[in-house]
Amino acid sequence: MRVLIVSDSHGEGALLREVVDREQADHVIHCGDFCTESAQLPGGWITVVRGNCDWVEVPWEARWEGGGIHFLITHGHRLQVNSSLLPLQYRAQEVGAQIACFGHTHIPMSEWVDGVLLLNPGSLVNPRGGFPKPSYAILETTGREDVTLSYFTPDGERLPGLGGKFPVFARSNPP
């Protein structure tokens, strides 16, 4: 399974469609702040949540299951991700999610904490926090033991030093 995870595209519907078309993922997750009419979002297999800058009525939070993995999708502002990832981690554990996808900070990151992969794809158009390039993430299952997470720029250039392999099926901290 191949999942494209994006966030904070802030009205750049054409760029979002370009990335979706190029990546040919089995599923697309948008973590909010798409800032377009829902008709401008790519069609197909997409789970989208509402961010603090969105006006379209979509859920604030969603859950999706694919390949035996349970995902929590949220923008993150309602869980105060700028201050701490602990509320996000607790919410993921509360709903039984192995992966919690969020945006809002515009900073790409992935962290394995107490059986939950916390994953922010960064912003598709406006990086922050000293990160020099816009980004998105691709998550791929590599069997029944772990997943591989990679980060890319909108033009498809791989971003080294981000992502890795995570044992989301084990529900324990990696070695």
From TrEMBL:
GO molecular function: hydrolase activity; metal ion binding
InterPro entries: Calcineurin-like_PHP_lpxH, Metallo-depent_PP-like, MPP_YfcE, Phosphodiesterase_MJ0936/Vps29
Family annotation (SUPFAM superfamilies): Metallo-dependent phosphatases (SSF56300)
Top-level enzyme category: hydrolase
Keyword Metal-binding: yes
Domain of life the protein comes from: Bacteria
Keyword Metal-binding: yes
Cofactor annotation: a divalent metal cation
UniProt domain Calcineurin-like phosphoesterase: residue ranges: 1-142
UniProt keyword annotations, A-Z: Metal-binding
EC number(s) per entry: 3.1.4.-
PANTHER family noted in UniProt: VACUOLAR SORTING PROTEIN VPS29
Entry similarity comment: Belongs to the metallophosphoesterase superfamily. YfcE family.
Protein name in UniProt: Phosphoesterase
Taxonomic lineage: Bacteria, Bacillati, Bacillota, Bacilli, Bacillales
